[in-house]
Amino acid sequence: MTGTAQVIVVGAGPAGLMLAAELRLGGVDVTVLEAAPHPAGQSRAPGVYARTIEVWRQRGILDRFPDKRFGRMSHFALLPVALDLSTPGTEDAVLLMPQARMEQVLAEWAESLGARILRSRTVKGLAQDEHGVTVTARRADGTAEHLRTDYLVGCDGGRSSVRRLCGFDFPGTPATTEVLLADMAGLPADLPVLKGRPFPHHRSEHGWLAMSVVTLSDDRPGLVRIIAGEFDRPPARRPEPPAFDEVCHVVKNISGLDISSAEPVWLSSFGNGTRQVTEYRRGRVLLAGDAAHVHPPFGGQGLNLGIQDAVNLGWKLAAEVTGRAPQGLLDTYHAERQPVAARVLLNTRAQDALMRGGPEVESLRTVVTELLRTPEANRRMSDELSAVAVHYPLGEGELVGRRVPPVELRLAEGTSANTLDLLHDARGVLLDLGADLAHHAAPWAGRVHQVRATGAFPGQAALLIRPDGHVAWSTPHREPAGLAEALHRWFGEPGTDR
Question: Other CB atoms closer than 10 Å to residue 237's CB: what's the count?
Fold first, then answer.
């Protein structure tokens, strides 16, 4: 063997880097293998939504992201109605930033915590046994590298080598059309054909196109991104990106807009197929992010979904590797995240159906637009898109299973803190709001912080918050009924901690 690690993560995208950092916070030795020789320079995903913003604040890294620009609005299937993604405590609900910048910050954070990132490593083989996984990777010079690990996590995208080599089933619906994407310099952001709309988009009998500005930094002009979908365009599996001439032709056919004078910076395409693995874990091999689920990027949910996979998995896998996990903890990763991704796939399929052509679809778009103009429907869809509505089936109680919202607390020592700031080191939190339960949780002191505070949660005397920010237990009473059971369920047996 040329190397060992307690966990090997394959893929240095946002999900893989987030997972590597989470594992390091849990005290795990981790190596990341990435096939690309250098970080991707493309903008790719142009931003993240409220729940990912909250997650980054939970870990204390939100301020690491430079040139932060925030927004509030998004859309559903390019309908002429805006979705307001802001929620109480999260008014800045959309962080506008190219994916390349996110990956740079996450890589620096993971490495500062002690994660190793090895580039130019293409995974070509793996074999697992009851004690671990042997990974064979090919270096840039063609030589083989053999590594041994306790657990392997594939975060290597929609065409995941880990998923294929381990034989995960990946059912779903095949693509029926192709959509083209281009980031361009030298194109004005106020094109006449796109003016006067809640979201810059155009729809005709030939297809649709959407436009946005990808912000690079304060001192660099943004790129104009155009995504174009012709109604009758068949699916394609391309070995290379589309030619810019092809993109120009499609855009002109849909809208009459001539973009040929622009300078293409990044060209890509995607299909509208959706797939999801039937299991997120096979023995000592797990999947996260696009390796576990693929869908068209309608609504911009994919990157957020992968990061939240990583945050759900990280503390559980760290507990398993270090011997702190209660029985069955690692299996809750699939149980909790598989339904969440299935819902996102349903959501993107619905948007895909609404973005097609024909009089029947136009009638349906009119009806759904009217629905989304009602406050209740708009709020529900906004919360679903931004993932703040995710509710794991963890037990009884209004807050149990939901993410702890960002609210200000008055701490017992007289200072103040936001609930999200209590989770920087990825440990649990027993938030005591007057029940005086500290001695009940004392045996788990190394795994669960005890915080005494007042206010913020009317009718609640105490909350037990998991490292991923979801409430595991709550009580309106001063009696600790169910607290010991919840502590055992999520944090294992009391004992020596790290």
Answer: 8
Rounded Cα gap, residues 339 and 385, in angstroms: 15
What does the pLDDT look like over 455-476, one tens digit per residue? Answer: 789 889 999 999 999 999 999 9
The β-bridge relationship of strands 448-454 and 428-432 is parallel
The amino acid at 264: P
How far from each other are the two terminal CA atoms of the chain, in whole angstroms?
Answer: 28
Bridge partners (DSSP) of residue 49 are 94
Nearest to 103 by CA among 180, 155, 165: 155
pLDDT at 498: 47
For residues 125 and 167, give the distance between their C-alpha atoms in angstroms, rounded to a whole number: 12
Residues 6+ apart with CB under 8 A from 365: 77, 79, 354
- Cα 155 off chain centre by: 12
Instruction: Give the number of C-alpha atoms closer than 13 A to the C-alpha of residue 218, restricted to the C-beta side.
Output: 5
Characterize 248-260 residue by residue with b for buried, 16 or more Cβ atoms within 10 angstroms of its Cβ, and e for exposed: bebbebbbebebe
- Tell me if residue 204 falls in helix, strand or coil: coil
Q: Summarize pLDDT for 124-183 with one digit per residue, the tens.
A: 999 999 999 999 999 999 999 999 999 999 999 999 999 999 999 999 999 999 999 999
Is 389 in contact with 339 (CB distance < 8 Å)? no
What's the predicted TM-score (pTM) here? Answer: 0.95
SS3 label, residue 445: coil
The CB density around residue 159, as the number of other CB atoms within 10 Å, is 10
Could you give the angle at which helices 332-354 and 359-372 cross, rounded to 10 degrees? 120
CA dist., res. 484 & res. 298, Å (int): 43
Q: How far apart are alpha carbons 477 and 428 in whole angstroms?
A: 21
Residue 70: CB partners within 8 Å, gap ≥ 6?
92, 93, 94, 95, 96
Q: Tokens in use for 372?
A: 């989304």
Smallest CA-to-CA distance from 493 within 446, 437, 427 is with 446
Contact 207, 253 (CB under 8 A): yes
| DSSP structure class, residue 37 | S
- CB 120: neighbour CB atoms within 10 A? 15
